[in-house]
Amino acid sequence: MSQTVKGVIARSKGADVEVVDVVVPDPGPGEAVVKIDACGVCHTDLHYREGGINDEFPFLLGHEAAGVVEAIGAGVTEVAVGDFVILNWRAVCGQCRACLKGKPWYCFDTHNAKQKMTLTDGTELSPALGIGAFIEKTLVAAGQCTKVAQADAGAVGLLGCGVMAGFGAAVNTGNVTRGDSVAVIGCGGVGNAAIAGAQVAGATTIIAVDISDEKLEQAKRFGATHTVNSKAVDPVEAVRELTGGFGADVVIEAVGRPETYEQAFYARDLAGTVVLVGVPTPELEVTLPLIEIFGRGGALKSSWYGDCLPSRDFPMLVELYKQGRFDLDAFVTERIGLGDVEAAFAKMHGGNVLRSVVEL
Ligand SMILES: NC(=O)c1ccc[n+]([C@@H]2O[C@H](COP(=O)([O-])OP(=O)(O)OC[C@H]3O[C@@H](n4cnc5c(N)ncnc54)[C@H](O)[C@@H]3O)[C@@H](O)[C@H]2O)c1
Ligand SMILES: [Zn+2]
Ligand SMILES: [Zn+2]
């Protein structure tokens, strides 16, 4: 038997989001219904609302969430009823060419629920990133539930998207290690998580670059050893000066724009690594001298979801959080209700909100 619960949808491009009744089917084979405790408001939810991802309106928004498994479908062995889980948007298949090569974090065939959640008139909803978690209960593929130790859902739910992407950009994609110098361009939720990841990995110089002094002040709390306001000074020169004239071993771009990518490219040491974790819009282009790409060597990488493996990385990061070595609480700027998502979108442009978190 299905159940009807309250959820937040974007009905059409640009329209204010609405709290409506959503019909959630019972879990079928390989599926689970999760009672959501908390879900962060991510920039990607706003992108969906603005029509920037695709046109499959109406969307059920929300995707950075933690909660408790309420019911499981036939054949589910990954999780059990009552498990406290963080939802992930890359449930690996185990069978595609990436998985078979032993690189499941690149999985090209990740799983979502097969059944659809609907409005009461039967209209099918498109869940954001295959999750849809601004809702009392959601239907996902069981593999999208990653069991972790009980902790504050508002804080650890953030591991489901932006915080994992940033942390993993540094630690998994950038392979930051002890003694490294790291520069992070763009210090929002993702960039600050990259800073925290670099600190956990043992980087000794961590340079935060942003155009907002407020953001740079926050970055210190996550482990930045130096800050650079790129509105005031040339960030490439500044990073070189702070690294003995050479550039950083790893530069992480967490904005997703050509000018900041170019800064990342030139702010890195010879044979260093650039990691692009910021997501560009389709029309953006970069032009770089090919001789510089050759002559500087090293690696130019992109980071999808921080190249994470939820089953490996979520429990580890929750453990670091519980030990006080990874300050997830510092990402939570405010706790709000289901009806406050539109207001949270407005605050995203304000400058000092890292994450608004919806609590249910
Ligand atoms: N790769 C992934 O899997 C993944 C996952 C989640 C988010 N993202 C992307 O990461 C990016 C950052 O997300 P967020 O949630 O941290 O966003 P955010 O809006 O919270 O932060 C962006 C930061 O960049 C700064 N900034 C803007 N223009 C700048 C410039 N020219 N130079 C320096 N700093 C500048 C802003 O002041 C802000 O602090 C977005 O593009 C988002 O879509 C990627
Ligand atoms: Zn796969
Ligand atoms: Zn997100």
Structural summary, described in words:
This protein has 360 residues and is of the alpha/beta class. The chain has 11 helices and 18 strands. The strands form 3 sheets. Strands 3, 5, 6, 9, 10, 17 and 18 form a 7-stranded mixed β-sheet that branches. Strands 13-12-11-14-15-16 form a 6-stranded parallel β-sheet, with helices on both faces. Strands 7-2-1-4-8 form a 5-stranded mixed β-sheet, with no helix packed on it. Helix 4 (162-173) runs parallel beside helix 5 (189-201). It is globular and about 65 Å long. The model has no long low-confidence stretch (mean pLDDT 96). The structure holds nicotinamide-adenine-dinucleotide and zinc ion (2 copies). The site of one zinc ion (ZN) has 6 residues, from loops. One zinc ion binds next to helix 2.
Q: Please tally the helical runs, counting DSSP H or I stretches of 4 or more residues.
A: 11
Rounded to an integer, what's the Rg over CA atoms? 20 Å
Structural class: alpha/beta
Strand content: 25-35%
Say which molecules are bound, naming each kind only once: nicotinamide-adenine-dinucleotide, zinc ion
What is the assembly state of the chains in this entry? single chain
Look at the structure and give the mean pLDDT: 96
Low-confidence stretches: none
Task: State the helical fraction.
Answer: 25-40%
Number of strands: 18
End-to-end distance: 23 Å
Q: Give me the strand/helix succession.
A: EEEHEEEHEEEEHHEHEHEHEHEHEHEHE
**Main β-sheet description:** 7 strands, mixed
Tertiary shape = globular
